[in-house]
Specification:
heterodimer, A: mainly alpha, MetI-like fold, B: alpha/beta, Rossmann fold, 3 domains, 6-stranded mixed beta sheet, 19 helices, 34% helix
Chain lengths: 292, 549
Amino acid sequence: MTDATQVPGRKPDGAWAHLLHVLRENPVTMLSFGMFAFFLLQAVFGAMLVPHDPLATNATNALQPPNWTHWFGTDSLGRDVFSRVVVATRLDLTISVLAVAISFVIGSVLGAIAGYWGGWIDAVLNRILDTIMAFPLFVLAMGIVAALGNTIENIIYATALINIPFYARLVRAEVNIRREAGFALAARLSGNSHLCTLAFHIFPNALPPMMVQVSLNMGWAILNAAGLSFIGLGVRPPTPEWGIMVAEGANYIISGHWWVALFPGLWLMLAVFTFNLMGDGLRDIVDPRRRT
Amino acid sequence: MLSIKDFAVSFRTRRGEVEAVRGISLDLATGETLGIVGESGSGKSVTSYALMRILDAGGRIKAGSATFDGRDLAQAAERDMQAIRGREISMIFQNPRAALNPIRKVGHQLEDVLRRHGRATRANARAKAIEALEAVRIRDAEARYDAYPFELSGGMCQRVVFAIALACGPRLLIADEPTTGLDITTQKAVMDLVRDLTRDRGMSSILITHDLGLAAEYCDRLAVMKDGKIVETGPAAALFADPRHPYTRKLVDATPRPGAGLRDLLPVETRTPLADHAPGDRALVQVRDLVKTYPGKSGPVHAVKGISFTIREGQSVGLVGESGCGKSTTSSMLVRLLDRTSGDILFDGFDIAAIPADRFVRDARRSQIQMVFQDATDSLNPRHSARQTIADPILRMSDLRGTALTARIEELATLCGLPLPLLDRFPHQLSGGQKARVGIARAIALDPKFLILDEPTAALDVSIQAVVLNLLADLRARLGMTYLFVSHDLNVVRLLCDHVIVMQGGEIVEQGPAARVMDAPRHLYTRTLLAAAPRPPAAIAPATTSAAE
């Protein structure tokens, strides 16, 4: 029995070593994960660390340009823009993470069922998804929020709904190509029901491409939430939120008070940028085949 | 004509530079056919890719020269290589369907090559392409010109690829595993064609293969490669009669051939006596008038047309036939992954065909009937370690948990010859043979009575195949299992099976004891199959390579 007796001395990479390798291999991934950590810290500790109360107004101090007390300047009501930008991170990330999580779960379930069983379920589901996709998605989200009411939950539901088709289609395709794979048949022989085979054997193999979709989606979700707030739907003033802050600041750009809109816009851009860059790294982390 | 000197090729990888070819030297005379034989990872394909300068990114020719007609291929500019490829040296690949563009007519693909190398003009391209198709003995070439690759069989696709390779009259043909994946009768037809045409045109050729028997039959001279080095070269007959290098000896031993038993495939020092194998008298599986019909666009497709056979307890039955003969459909129905159209499958006297495949999962007999799949890579979940894979059936169908489960997994691994440290690896971190062992361990995890082996060694190297076949024989003796061995390779079936069933077109054309069917085949089709199998020269008496012509 010659082939199996040669066991090389070194052990294959564990999960941590693999994570480190993925980060080291690609500087862009490293950068994006670093920036993600930066945003995460702001979301968790931001409210405790900021120098000023984000809601405290001070009319005498309105529209100050950036200086040592107010790093990003102050807005028309004299609130500290820096504190507001940092504190807003939690709300914006929560909206986008929850929205993406909901669409991930619902899209995965629908897509997996359609891809595995096919037939009329698949046909019906695809037509429903086509219908959703046929609307301009942002307009659809606006309509949902306007109809259901102007709350943060409704922004989350609207953002989740418009993203479901992307997940469902991706999962459907990934599950479909593996439905007849040897390991899926072997799982059936091992006593797995169809549902177990799908959930524990086939679906996890769809995760790597899903991760790319998640990261792109996070970016869209943040933009979407900010966009809804910008046009006055969803988050209401005076809650600090990037979209509202850009909207408020937009009125002052003409008068030369550029900082009011610029800094929240910059944070928004950096957040979207971070999530978009994270995709490839996330995919490599969840794909065991990338380990040596 | 081609002279390779100290040729070395290396690849950049995550673990640093890996040398795939480590300084090989070879000479090829005009009109000669050279066989490069070796197992996967020996560097034989990399050598040919490097000669054509079509290495993957990260690969480079590190040292040495390859002089073809006074030009060094290792140093030639990309521009010159473009002129050489196809016109001077052409290549045919393993998977003919992948080598053809799926959305273009084969005739147009031929024309592309002809016109690119200035062999045809717009006006006469069609005529020349049809001529080229006729040259590779494609019947009705005029009609085939308009066919898309998916409309042609695998053998036909390989002929088209061959026609493209020959279109510009190259002087050297490199064939990289040209018949792997083709049926045995198709393999013979394609290889005979390659031999005849290269001989008629005075071309040289290099045949790269893992099949020593095939190489011996079609090549003048063989070079055996291992780990990027050539360990031995010489005429085929001499290599078989008197292998000098231990690795050549091992390969020659491992090649299934008439007259050799299972243990003869192993290296001499590891041969232990084979346990006696005597099938019982009680019928374990009885198949009666089993029919499978699929609805098709152009009428129903009859995959299996009413077959009947009996497998006795402890017996090993070989199910033989070429692709499309219904053997896979039959085994899928027996293992209850597929519902039959009509007929009975009696297992221990109970008609399991009456239980729908979807509900059989919860049947008590599920653990009694298991299967080892053809492609070990495809049949292991890429996200599960070997341990998780073997544990899956135990977790689903027994109460074993905790330390008892670990102990059982390790017992199974030991039984299948899988070293315990490998249990925590993922499939892509295991070799082909190790993956096959994981697949076997999973299948026998619940002590099944009846094991269906679906070409379990088709994707393995010969030396690994020898080990796995012996492992299966040992397991049969230890666990008293009954086997249905599905295969296209009669030589392999003969080694393991007592009884052989030959299928063609969904029907059983012949069945009987293995020795009788192989030595005195009654049906024409069985005789065709036997004749198509490459016959390695006998190890003792030096036979001539032309014996099979």
